[in-house]
Amino acid sequence: MAKNKKIEVEGVDIRIKDNNDFICLTDIARKVDTRTDIVLSNWLRNASTLDFLYEWEIMHNSEGFNSIKFDGFRKEAGKVGFVMTAKKWIEGTGAVGIESKAGRYGGTFAHRDIAYEFCTAISPSFKLHLIRGFDMLVQDKYRQLGEPYDITRLMTKGTFPLLTEGIRETIPDKVVGTKKAGLYYANEVDMINVILFGMTAEQWRKKNPNSKVGENMRDNASATNLLILSALQALNERLIKWGCDKEQRFDLLKEATEDWRSILARKKSIQTLTKRIDKQKKLKTS
Q1: Per-residue pLDDT averaged across 160-183, rounded?
Q2: 105, 108, 202, 219: least CB-packed within 10 angstroms?
C-alpha cells in the first residue's frame, strides 16, 4: 500500500491519503493542542458541525446515512453531557465522510470538504494555507494535463445543490430531520442514475464491491455522461418547482438524455474531452 502524502502548513505536517480526497483531522488538531482527541470531540459536538456533516452525507451518502440517529445526536448537541467522537459518529450514522483508525499510523481523516470546515474553527489563516498546499499538491500531480483536473465532475457537483434545494421544498415538515427525508434525495438521485447509467447507486455498488469509500458510478462516467448529468440535475430542479410529478419528470428527462447524447456524440470537442478525462483517470490511479 502506498504511503500517505504530507504537506506542511504553518509548521504542522498534515497527512493526505493517496486519493487526495481525505485529509488528516488529527494532524490539523495538533495546531491547537497535543490532546487531539479532545480538540476533535469539542468540534464534533457543536450543532453547526453536525449540521454541516449532515448536509455533506445527504449529498454523498443519502442511502447509507442514518438520519434518525443523526436527529438524536442533533437534539443533544451543545448540552453539557453530550460527547461526540469520530468513531461514535461513524458507527451511529453510517457516515462515509470521516474515517478513523487506531494505532501508530492511524488517526481521523475526513474528506477535504469536511477538513476545510474543521479548519474554519481552527484558524482562517491555517485554512487558507492548507487549501493552498492541497491545491499545489494536486497541481503537481496533474501538471502534465495543462488544465484543471476533472472539470466535468466538478461541474456536476456544482449543479447538485440546485437539485437538493428543489427536493428540500417538497419534503413535508414532519419528515424533515428523519430517515425518510434522506429517501426523498436518494429517490431523485437514483431516478437520474437509472436514466443515465441504467442502474441505481446500490446496484452499482453490488457490481463494484472493491470500489473506494464514497465512490459511485458518477466518478467513473464518460465526459458525455457527466455533461448530460449536470444538465439533468438543473433541469430536474426546474421540473420539481413547476409541479411535475415523478412519472412526468422521468419521461421528460429520459427524452432529453437521448437527444443530448445524440448531439454530443457528433461533437469533436467532446471526443477530445473524453480522451483528456481518460488520461486523468490513468494518472490518478498510477
Answers
A1: 72
A2: 105
